[in-house]
Write a structure and sequence with these properties.
alpha/beta, eleven-stranded mixed beta sheet, 13 strands
Length: 377
Amino acid sequence: MSPENPSTKRHFGHIEVPLQRVHLELTNVCDFNCVFCPKSEMKRKYGYMDTDLAKRIITELRMNNICEKITFHVMGEPTLHPDFFNILSYAGNIGIKVGLTTNGSGLGGDIGKRLLDHDIYQIDVSLQTPDEKSFSLRKAKGLEFNDYLNGILEFFSSYNARHKNTIFKFRFLNTRFRKKGLEEKTGPVLVISSTDELRKTFRYWAGRIYDLLSLEQEKREIAMRRIDKLVSYKWNVVEIFNNVFFETYVLEEWGNAFDNKEVINAWAGYCFGMRDHFSILHNGDVTLCCVDFNGNTKIGNLHKSSLKEVLSTDELGRIIDGFKRFRLIHPYCRRCLGSKSRISWLFKPVISIMALKVLKPFFYKHTRLTEPGGRNG
């Protein structure tokens, strides 16, 4: 059996495919305890996806062209799966694009060395806290920031030299918009909280990477001038070099996960769940989106059913029809997009729909700092 043309839109169960990605959670175990992560609120048991199940899922995704790529990510650090490299090799051998999202803790050690032998489509390093002070928010046990930083940069240099077509993304946490519910539990979460901090951070990290890439001084100066035009209130996707990106992620509360106060369920809303992605948790549960860290939107389990059967359920059909009309059918979706005040409850759905459907180009900023072929030699 050979896969169909992935560019042709069609339906697989109730969803229109191919989606941009499917999140495959190999494990929800993580060696970091970031205060801004919902790990502390997670009620699910810790565990690892069965290797045979992971391979069966990857095969079904590939043979049916359900997604443009799989992403090893929901909760947890995927490289901690005891059979991670076996699963990664299997995905590569059957020809599905793989995205790896990692906290970067293992990149300076044996994991990083073994990754050099794998041609991965995209590697996202959840750097999040780009300096020693903010790194304390990660609660990374015995790992020192300088060791963490140097390990990531050394890995990037070695990997990029071998696999120049791999997309590399360094993700930074944007705390310009504070989250009261989260900070009432964690204390202040301050990383990149202003435009000045954004520019300073990007200049430092771009400089370190340009050193590794031996970028010409003239092109480096042009890049730095372009960094000085960035602003912190946008979703910045900055291509600092060919296939190398910096990306800012706005601090969020993961669907009111940290709030003990009453949440008023949303009366309407918009979500990308089952529209451009869905998630499969380590125990085989299929959920609507990657924000559902606790598996509250489970619509089926792949130990008991095929993916086609799960995505063909009447329940999912009703949920997707609701999304198309900005109606939230699943009760967890209503809470996830809910509000803490009546005024917010009234206007938040309208604002969110406008932001995602109409105003996205205003808040989304893609910037290229260098021209193609900018490396010396």
